[in-house]
């Protein structure tokens, strides 16, 4: 349970991780070897519902926290990285690396 | 482009290896992992679990790399995992999101349950550089050798978490003092670490943090 990229979100992240881990152990348990395709699907559909019921609320809170933080941090990272690359290539002869090497925000 | 593939066997069953793989951060072998966040997670209609995590890793440029191009020696990594509990397979693909022109590393790991109860890990890596300036081959070779060294450490990290999980299952949780879960000695610092400027040695503080977090979760379960 590592830290979140935003320290403010770490407590929510850890609460979510604990919730997920407990659910995940049960999810990994094998279903009966002779179970039919239909009953297996129903089993995992129930597992998905159970996960949503148990961890859905904290997951939403965690994601909301993260998205706020990413917006701030992402734009800061773009600026920092942009400056780095500019300073290297600004001297005029090469712009070829600028666009592809720019930090891409994952959202 | 450089390609590398290897396989490894864990003696433990697939479900516990999978759990350890998901729980592997933080551990004393992964002090370069600065943060790890789940950005999407869902159960697919076929019952598989899809997870996307965003990980921030600290790195270092090799000494021979031109100065000034990368001053921010951190890299965002995206990890996409599919867990298939019916077929007993985990597939995980990882790639870096930034510095991709300098070097793009794509890793693919598969954990498969074997009929004898063990777990097979198959790892593939593709290292590609489009840097030019006569350094492309050297960057790719460097990236690959780092990958190999780090893979060993990553495996040791998973093994350490596995050991804790095993111990926690052998004794009833919530009973007994904290000290009943004994930890292995801190790993020695590796000669080839995640950075050329010296591997951060896992210290007691780091170990206490990660293990107490893991233990507190194990106790709650």
Automatic annotation (TrEMBL), chain A:
InterPro entries: MDM35_apoptosis. It comes from the Eukaryota. Keywords: Disulfide bond. The keyword Disulfide bond applies. Pfam families: UPF0203 (PF05254). Belongs to the TRIAP1/MDM35 family. This is Mitochondrial distribution and morphology protein 35. It comes from Mycena chlorophos (Agaric fungus).
Automatic annotation (TrEMBL), chain B:
Transmembrane segments: none annotated. It comes from the Eukaryota. Residues 192-202 have a biased composition (Low complexity). One of its GO terms (cellular component) is mitochondrial intermembrane space. Residues 204-214 have a biased composition (Polar residues). Residues 175-221 are annotated as: Disordered. Signal peptide: none annotated. InterPro entries: PRELI/MSF1_dom (IPR006797), Slowmo/Ups (IPR037365). Residues 1-170 form the PRELI/MSF1 domain. PANTHER family: MSF1/PX19 RELATED. This is PRELI/MSF1 domain-containing protein. The lineage of its organism: Eukaryota, Fungi, Dikarya, Basidiomycota, Agaricomycotina.
């Amino acid at each position: 349970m590592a830290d979140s990229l935003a320290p403010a979100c770490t407590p929510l992240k850890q609460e979510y991780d604990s919730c997920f881990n407990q659910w995940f152990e049960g999810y990994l348990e094998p279903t009966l070897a002779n179970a039919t395709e239909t009953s297996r699907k129903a089993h995992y559909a129930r597992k998905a519902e159970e996960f949503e019921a148990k961890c859905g609320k904290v997951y939403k809170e965690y994601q909301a926290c993260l998205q706020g933080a990413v917006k701030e941090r992402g734009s800061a990272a773009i600026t920092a990285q942009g400056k780095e690359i500019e300073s290297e290539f600004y001297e005029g002869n090469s712009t070829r690396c600028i666009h592809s090497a720019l930090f891409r925000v994952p959202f | 482009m450089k390609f590398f593939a290897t396989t490894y066997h864990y003696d433990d069953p697939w479900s516990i290896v999978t759990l350890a793989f998901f729980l592997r951060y933080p551990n004393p072998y992964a002090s370069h992992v600065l943060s790890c966040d789940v950005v999407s997670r869902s159960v697919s209609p076929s019952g598989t679990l899809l997870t996307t995590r965003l990980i921030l890793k600290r790195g270092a440029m090799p000494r021979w790399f031109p100065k000034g191009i990368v001053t921010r020696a951190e890299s965002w990594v995206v990890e996409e995992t599919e867990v298939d509990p019916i077929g007993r397979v985990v597939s995980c693909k990882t790639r870096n999101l930034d510095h991709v022109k300098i070097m793009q590393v794509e890793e693919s790991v598969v954990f498969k349950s074997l009929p004898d109860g063990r777990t097979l890990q198959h790892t593939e890596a593709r290292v590609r550089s489009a840097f030019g300036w006569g350094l492309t081959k050297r960057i790719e070779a460097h990236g690959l050798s780092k990958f190999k060294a780090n893979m060993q450490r990553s495996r040791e990290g998973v093994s350490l978490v596995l050991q804790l999980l095993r111990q926690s299952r052998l004794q009833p949780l919530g009973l007994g003092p904290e000290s009943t879960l004994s930890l292995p000695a801190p790993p020695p610092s590796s000669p080839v670490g995640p950075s050329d400027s010296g591997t951060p040695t896992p210290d007691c503080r780091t170990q206490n943090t990660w293990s107490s977090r893991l233990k507190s979760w194990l106790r709650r379960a």
